[in-house]
Specification:
Layout (H helix, E strand, L loop, with lengths): L3 E5 L2 E4 H10 L3 H5 L12 E3 L4 E9 L4 E7 L5 E3 L5 H10 L7 E4 L5 E3 L4 E3 L5 E4 L3 H13 L4 E10 L9 H9 L8 H8 L5 E4 L3 E2 L4 E2 L3 E5 L8 H16 L10 E6 L11 E4 L4 E5 L6 H11 L5 E3 L27 H7 L6 E4 L7 E7 L12 E4 L6 E7 L16 E7 L7 E7 L4 E5 L8 E10 L2 E9 L142
Length: 614
């Protein structure tokens, strides 16, 4: 959209003509640097072109929120109200928005609202990352593992046209640097927690045209009312420092700039402070400047750290300083949780990484206390790295002593924290507090369903925790199952085949015969069986006889049977005669009967002989 602004009743100047005019007049270079001082204003808007670096501003209040701002090369600060928190979270998650690195690609007709110092954009800006992924990774590693050992700080007492910060410059200097004897402050605590690996100090004394910097602090008075808002006040202070000390921007003076603002400056009265992630500026709500925990928390954002949370509670991890802060000058004394400690790199020589896999599933480790880092021979940090995910797990033994004696939660326990490590500034989440004999299980480890990782604290003795880490991987499937056919040996019961088994079945018929003859007997067997065998013989005759045989032989067979019959059974064959037969026949029957008895024996002969036995 092209804006037109009335210059007189008969003339209007289009934006395109305005840009041409400003370019030809030599103003364009100052605009590209965000320098609006001395620029002709049209209503409340002035044009802005050029590079503006994006910063995520973390606001510590009862309701935490984030805002997107951008800085020009001369230190001017502008809000980007078209960037909602949802949009910021999406771009942050995708890696497109990296605080302190991403450049806003602003269209040439971008205007600045000089009442609110905000960019007048209808839509969120286009994001440019000037550094490639490899370069960002190298920069991240350098920042994490080899931070600048000594960092300078300038603290500013701000006086607005209608309000003044409560503390004097000398009190502010003492509260941050201990210049007048304060024994617990920003300098002492960062030095203690890092074991001397990261030190803050006040910037060197410096004389200005009308103001001096002494003991790392100064007072700046600006002609801006508190009702104009934070951005108007901060930009006015930046301009005053540039003019007073002959610099390009305020961060030419020191690595970090701390503002102690007058009361009533923040729109949300519960706001304690706000700090830029990967930036240099922190704004405190008046006496919040005194709080050592808040000083360390906000500088933590400058160093690239996100918040420490627990479950669904923002700031909820109160074992370290990136959770909630406290309205106390010198307490509580504590440091940072395991995820933040790993990020800072202070204890890298006493840190270990494990990557559980199916081939290497278990580990035994001892963890000493971070408070004992200078004397213990044990590791003080353990990182668990899944082989398929950016989310890593960190463990420490949170001994409540020494530099960490004021830790508010998880005292003298093993704490487990998780963090998405794709970006430094991501928040961390505490997920477990383990005492002696406690255990905690991570389900679907490595992103695989059914895979579990169990962390167990076996013992805690002399501020050293003995732990085990065990990965359990489910089997790929069930066993192969039964074979398709029966076993080669006899079954315990009758087989299901149509014919008899090759050996006698395991259970006899209800009344077994005394024994089969080698061929058919001269007379009937001692009696029919009570029930048929479990399966008929493989070659029965077509039909049983309709009547019993004519009678018994008058004498024994020429050869004895394998088992003599005892007597006729009480139940004769299918149709017993009303009386027994008159007497045995004089000889054996001429041949075998045309069919078997009403129920075949359990083990008939293979095939009946055509003649009776001798």
């Amino acid at each position: 959209m092209v804006r037109s602004f009335a210059i007189s009743s008969n003339f209007s100047l289009s934006l395109s003509y305005l840009v041409w005019f400003l370019s030809s007049s030599g103003f364009a270079s100052s605009l590209r640097d965000g320098n609006t001082t001395g620029i002709v204003k049209i209503g409340q808007y002035v044009p802005l072109e050029g590079i503006c670096t994006a910063y995520v501003k973390e606001i510590l209040a009862d309701v935490m929120r984030q805002e997107l701002v951008c800085y020009t090369s001369n230190g001017r600060l502008f809000a980007v109200p078209s960037a909602s928190q949802e949009w910021m979270h999406e771009k942050h998650k995708s890696g497109e928005l990296i605080s302190g690195e991403t450049i806003l690609d602003l269209p040439p007709n971008t205007m600045v609202d000089m009442e609110t110092f905000s960019l007048d954009l209808a839509n969120p800006p286009i994001l440019l990352n000037a550094m490639g992924e490899d370069s960002r990774n190298r920069r991240r590693q350098l920042r994490m593992l080899a931070p600048k050992k000594i960092r300078t700080v300038l603290a500013i007492r701000v006086i607005a046209s209608d309000a003044t910060a409560s503390m004097t410059a000398s009190e502010i200097s003492d509260g941050f640097f201990g210049t007048s004897g304060d024994k617990v402050n920003l300098v002492t605590q960062y030095n203690a927690c890092s074991f001397g690996k990261l030190q803050f100090k006040p910037m060197n004394d410096k004389k200005g045209k009308t103001r001096n910097i002494k003991g790392g602090a100064t007072t700046i008075k600006v002609d801006v009312a508190t009702s104009k808002g934070i951005l108007a006040l901060v930009n006015a202070v930046n301009d005053k420092l540039v003019a007073e000390f002959g610099i390009r921007a305020e961060n030419d003076l020191a690595d970090h700039i701390m503002y102690c603002l007058p009361p009533g400056m923040f729109q949300d009265p519960t706001t304690q402070a706000e700090g830029d992630v990967n930036g240099f500026r922190v704004l405190f709500n008046d006496k919040s400047c005194e709080s050592v925990s808040l000083q360390m928390h906000e500088i933590g954002h400058n160093l690239g750290m996100g918040h420490s949370n627990e479950d669904a509670e923002e700031y909820g991890d109160q074992s370290g300083l990136m959770g909630w802060s406290y309205n106390s000058d010198d307490t509580p004394l504590m440091c940072f949780n395991s995820a933040k400690s790993w990020q800072l790199g202070w204890y890298a020589d006493k840190a270990a990484t494990v990557t559980p896999t199916a081939k290497n599933p278990s580990f035994s480790k001892k963890i000493g206390a971070i408070a004992d880092y200078g004397t213990t021979n044990e590791k003080v940090l353990i990182r668990i790295v899944p082989n398929t995910q950016d989310t890593h797990y960190f463990m420490n033994y949170n001994a409540a002593k020494g530099i960490n004696k004021g830790t508010q939660e998880g005292r003298n326990q093993v704490l487990v924290t998780k963090k998405d490590t794709s970006l430094d500034q991501n928040d961390s989440w505490r997920i477990a507090e383990l005492g002696e004999k406690d255990s905690f299980t991570l389900n679907d480890f490595n992103g695989k369903k059914g895979e579990t990782l169990k962390i167990t604290v076996n013992s805690i003795k002399d501020d050293v925790a003995d732990i085990s880490i065990v990965l359990s991987v489910p089997t790929s499937g069930p066993t192969s199952g039964p074979t398709s056919g029966p076993t080669s040996g006899p079954t315990s019961g009758p087989t299901s085949t149509a014919g008899p088994t090759s050996v006698p079945t395991g259970a006899p018929t209800g009344g077994p015969t005394s024994g089969p003859t080698g061929g058919p007997t001269g007379g009937p067997t001692s009696g029919p069986t009570f029930s048929p065998t479990s399966a008929p013989t493989s070659d029965p005759t077509a039909m049983p006889t309709s009547e019993p045989t004519a009678g018994l032989r008058s004498g024994p067979t020429s050869g004895p049977t394998s088992g003599p019959t005892s007597a006729p059974t009480s139940d004769p064959t299918t149709r017993p005669t009303s009386e027994p037969t008159a007497g045995p026949k004089s000889g054996p029957t001429s041949g075998p009967t045309s069919g078997p008895t009403s129920a075949p024996t359990s083990d008939p002969t293979t095939r009946p002989t055509s003649e009776p036995t001798a």
